[in-house]
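User: Can you predict the 3D structure for this chain?
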Amino acid sequence: MKPRHKRFALIGGGIAVLGVATWLVLSAFQENLVFFFSPSDVAAEKAPKERTFRIGGLVEEGSVKRDGVMVHFVVTDTAHKMPVVYQGILPDLFKEGKGVVAQGKLGGDGVFRASEVLAKHDENYMPPEAAHALEQAHKAGKTMSGDDTYGGKTK
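Assistant: Here is the predicted structure, written as structure tokens:
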């Protein structure tokens, strides 16, 4: 084999190895990518089926039911509600009426099965995605009803 052919074979082999490595990295990235959706997005069927995603909003008052380490609660963005089931120990800051983000999958029965639950950090903090979802739901509700109040306070 001539030196010229050897160089072309090495360059071609290097390009093939680089292509396979790029494909592996991109496929691993795609599998670990987790998107955020609000209960309104899930109700509009924008959330993926059979894939892990995050849902966020407020824990609805009076919705938390505990059965040992199994916890049932409802996440709302004030426009729509999403039932959530989580098995495990909840964060200390998890409370009704407070912000929450849960990661998991949506079951065929419409119940979100969380594998991880994140609670708000302090009194003034809400995850940006959850705050945005609540704001969007409020705007949608305001345009539908013409109501300028939110929680009894005028904006």
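Residues 144-155 have pLDDT under 50 and may be disordered. The radius of gyration is 23 Å.
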